[in-house]
Design a protein that fits this description.
Strand order of the largest sheet: 10-11-16-15-14-17
Number of strands: 18
Number of domains: 2
Distance between the termini: 46 Å
Largest sheet: 6 strands, antiparallel, barrel
Radius of gyration: 25 Å
Strand content: 15-25%
Structural class: alpha/beta
Number of helices: 16
Helix content: 25-40%
């Protein structure tokens, strides 16, 4: 997963000058020691911030240590002006937390009033229009705060990853998939760069990669990964050439960005010129944290990348595709658990899910495209998908999307892939989301989300919800439990 940010975390204490500075210093040292015990890598800044000059010293100290994220710790009440100035000037995600009082035997000289100080800091954050991460309950003992810091690290990875990301798109979004067509202006608000290219550009970089020294090694790696599932060994060199072409293009064109992902137009002209479908290559790059969305789904690939940052694992992009027949649910018995049929759907795509996220995988041909492009002949140009059953286990579905009027909104819902045979083609799995039917109607349909959803292969709702809030997204929906009504839901059923 080379395409993800590495977080170098720092810890800085603040102290209001009318409180004992030593109290804040001592509490910082205790917190750092607990973090070390819990294997949370964090650098203690020796500067304690009492005034603006201390803020400048702390920023320089952070720069010297190469810090990319910061925990601001109120060991006592703290000076809200210098504290929020630090958060404003620091170039990276910031968490703010405060110390709880340690003992009823020391509430004169040892009382820090950090609970009160958090209120003043929050007011001043509003004055500066800052949006750091504040845990659901931001006050605690050292072991409690350390756990909150551990939860902040993947959130910081999402924020840092998004702000350092460049999306390379190839081709206009398909006419029949206008659902994937959304304004790109909000990307710049997030800090994401985008480089739009034509399909001809994509074909040109593919042709230019012919004879590249890495092609044979990549083809051999593909054969090793596919094993017995390598049904079409004759196209591996073409696929390897395409993979090499994308990687070389990203390396040459990252510019001021650190990380790159792709949103490509993958049909119908692609197959006629390239001679294959790109799905397997897309799956391999997603496995390294460099997802490639199909149908030029720019917000889809952004969502997929965010999932990888949140989990440090490969993610995928699936269609929220079809219902699960009642007879399949009935025959599955205990496999379906306590879910109703309306909690279930099949997540499907042509073959872009990484092999590490599949229970089984084989290189095949794309059935739907074959019907369209070469119905009277054996599969040729429609070969190159990675198909099979998606691995059972915890998942989170997620999407960050722009509306037509450039407003960002998002959803997140946790569930699982069931160990149930989908009995169909593509990269596919039976997914269970509690209260999915209501979520489908009153979030996905009501708010006009497209059919693609990013899938993280663990429960990552806490991280994703907090991260998109830090990115300034106000509308973040989730699947409401029974008894809680969506604003548009008919209470009479």
């Amino acid at each position: 997963m080379k395409n993800l940010p590495k977080i170098h975390l720092g810890l800085v204490a603040v102290s209001r000058d009318c409180f004992p500075r030593e109290l804040s210093e001592k509490r910082r040292v205790k917190l750092a020691a607990v973090c070390k015990e819990k294997n949370i890598k964090i650098t203690e800044l020796k500067t304690v911030i009492e005034n603006e000059n201390d803020t400048l010293k702390a920023l320089e100290e952070a720069r010297q240590h190469g810090l990319t994220a910061l925990v601001v710790y109120l060991g006592n009440f703290g000076p809200e002006g210098p504290t929020t100035l630090l958060i404003q000037k620091f170039d990276g995600p910031v968490m703010v937390a405060a110390a709880a009082e340690e003992s009823g035997n020391d509430l004169y000289g040892g009382r820090g009033d950090a609970y009160c100080g958090m209120l003043n800091v929050s007011y001043n954050l509003g004055l500066r229009e800052l949006n750091p991460y504040i845990p659901e309950y931001p006050v605690g003992m050292p072991d409690e705060i350390a756990d909150k810091i551990a939860a902040f690290i993947p959130i910081a990875m999402v924020v840092q990853g998004v702000k350092s990301l460049k999306i390379f798109s190839f081709g206009p979004r398909p006419q029949d998939f206008l659902a994937c067509n959304a304004p790109i202006k909000p990307l710049y608000n997030l800090g994401v760069e985008i480089m739009e290219n034509s399909e001809l550009d994509l074909y040109d970089i593919f042709l230019s990669a012919k004879g590249h020294k890495d092609i044979d090694a990549v083809a051999a790696d593909m054969a090793k990964e596919l094993g017995a599932g390598n049904q079409y060994p004759d196209i591996l060199k073409k696929l390897a050439q395409f993979e090499v072409a994308l990687l070389c293009f990203a390396e040459k064109n990252l510019g001021a960005s650190q990380f790159g992902v792709f949103a490509d137009k993958c049909w119908p002209a692609f197959e006629k010129y390239f001679g294959f479908v790109p799905c397997y290559v897309n799956s391999r790059l997603a496995g390294r944290g460099m997802p490639v969305s199909c149908e030029v789904d720019i917000y889809g690939v952004l969502s997929e990348y965010i999932c990888s940052c949140a989990t440090s694992m490969p993610a995928t992009l699936l269609d929220i595709n079809n219902t699960v027949p009642y007879d399949m649910v009935e025959k599955s018995g205990k496999v379906a658990g306590g879910y109703s049929p309306n909690d279930l759907f099949m997540g499907f795509h042509c073959g872009n899910t990484p092999s590490s996220c599949m229970a089984d995988s084989t290189m095949r041909y794309q059935l739907i495209m074959h019907r369209l492009m070469e119905p009277e002949s054996d599969p040729n140009i429609t070969r190159g998908t990675l198909e099979g059953t998606i691995r059972a286990g915890d998942i989170t579905i997620f999407r960050l999307q722009s509306t037509a009027d450039t407003q960002l909104r998002s959803y997140v819902a946790q569930g699982e892939v069931l160990p149930m045979d989908p009995k169909s083609f593509g990269g596919i799995g039976v997914i269970a989301i509690p209260e999915m039917a209501r979520f489908y109607r009153h979030v996905l349909i009501e708010k006009r989300y497209p059919h693609h959803t990013a899938v993280a292969f663990k429960h990552a709702g806490k991280t994703l919800f907090a991260a998109v809030k830090m990115l300034g997204v106000q509308d973040v929906a989730f699947n409401l439990p029974k008894g809680m009504y969506y604003p548009t839901e008919n209470p009479y059923g």
